[in-house]
Amino acid sequence: MKIPVALVWLLAFTNVLLIRGESNDATICKDHFMLDPRPHSVSILEFGAVGDGKYLNTLAFQNAIFYLKSFADKGGAQLYVPPGKWLTGSFNLTSHLTLFLEKGATILASPDQSHWDTVSSLPSYGRGKRYRSLINGDNLLDVVITGDNGTFDGQGAVWWEWFESGTLNYSRPHIIELVSSKNILISNLTFLNAPSVNIHPVYCSHVHIRKVLIETTVDSPYVLGVVPDSSDNVCIEDSTINVGHDTISLKSGWDQYGINYNRPTTNVHLRNLSLKSPTGAGISFGSEMSGGISDVTVELLTIQSSHVGVAFRTTRGRGGYIRNITISDVILSRVDTAIVADGHTGSHADDKYDRDALPVVTRVLMRNFTGEGIGLAGKFTGIGESPFTSICLSDIHLQTSSESWVCSNVSGFSDDVTPEPCQELMSSPSSCFAGGGIYGVDTAARGYYSW
């Protein structure tokens, strides 16, 4: 008895979910961070801060945080930032802290390089130094950064000029970077004009980002929205991100440094997002993915006026893997290429990388996509010695204006897809739950990637 193709597809898709099991838990976003009131609260005004946009308040923020450390074992504390423009350089947070920006409050990043310290690169990215981010945290627990739609303004234009002119000695700072921290909530805020990345959780667990607006001008070079990096149990939801480069980019380390650090990005749930990226991708994986990226659920996206809708990027020498990815319910509009999977993207940290460290891309399901004003439906270019496998497409309908699909070194299955995909994506549906093994940018991007 012949089984209808749609039923075979459903069985294949179900088997993928069963194989993946609870590790890819799409309920991550349902486990909302509990916002218990802090028993103690102080205003930044109590530490001599002036909100005129000119007075440098770095010391005021540093002193306030130092004072609030004493409440960590007493239920934590809140630092309240009232309406005004609060110019500052870098400062560190502490555990059991809420940083609250009132409506009309803007934390302005100083455009003076002398107000930014330098720190070592992250161990999963290599040697060298970089500028410390505006808001920092290391080995923290229970941190909330929220407000009544208060604003962080990175005043990044001067950094973009320095970056494009090649006059920076170190990588540009981010607005928020939290390292090796747990139980983080970032919500109800606006982020403008980041020098580089807006929100960068790295080596973190249980990160919840919701109801944020992130924007830069379209010509901001290599400015990204949110970058979950070697982190687990991450939820990003109910947000709008319009930046020059990738809006959300999942990463996990660079070449041999990421392989040796060996911390993947896993258990990630992205949902209900409006995204725009004129020179990058709405959602991207890699190309720095040497620690691995797995068990990611993405749903309910609107991606418009972007270069790429969904991108998977890697290259020889990366090692690592991208696997167990489900992306569904995506609306695309005015996108140059809807889906890209490229095994030849990205520069290397240095010349010590292992050319035999081949990345694996496998078990990727994309379903229920619609698109209008699409240039190219998809471009899949795997690596000859490590082709992309189990790339499975279902219920995808794109109105394209040029050649529809480009494929090489890729295999998978498709059902109910228009335009009709290439032959490499029309194999047996059993390929959608076939196992995959784990094998042992351009130059201008180096200033951004040397974290």
Describe the structure.
The chain is globular and about 65 Å long. The longest helix is centred in the N-terminal third of the chain and has 16 residues, at 5-20. The strands form three sheets. It has a 20-stranded parallel sheet that branches. Mean pLDDT is 90; it is low at 1-24 and 434-448. The chain folds into two domains: 38-245, Pectate Lyase C-like (3 Solenoid), CATH 2.160.20.10; 248-435, Pectate Lyase C-like. The protein has helices at 5-20, 58-68, 157-165, 255-261, 446-449, and strands spanning 40-43, 52-56, 77-81, 84-88, 91-92, 97-101, 105-109, 118-120, 129-131, 135-138, 141-147, 150-153, 176-179, 182-192, 197-202, 205-215, 224-226, 232-242, 248-250, 265-276, 281-285, 293-313, 321-342, 360-381, 388-400, 405-408, 410-418. Helices cover 10% and strands 46% of the residues. Strand 8 and strand 9 (129-131) form a beta hairpin. The protein is mostly beta strands.
How much of the sequence is in beta strands? over 45%
Give the count of structural domains: 2
Can you tell me the residue ranges where pLDDT is under 50 for at least 5 consecutive residues?
1-24, 434-448
* CATH fold descriptor of the largest domain: Pectate Lyase C-like
Instruction: Compute the separation of the termini in Å.
Output: 57 Å
* Radius of gyration (Å): 22 Å
Main sheet properties: 20 strands, parallel
| Secondary structure tally, helices | 5
The CATH architecture of the largest domain? 3 Solenoid
- Quick one: overall form? globular
What's the CATH C level of the largest domain?
Mainly Beta
Protein name: Pectate lyase superfamily protein domain-containing protein
InterPro entries: GH28_Enzymes, Glyco_hydro_28, PbH1, Pectin_lyas_fold, Pectin_lyase_fold/virulence
GO molecular function: polygalacturonase activity
Pfam families: Glyco_hydro_28
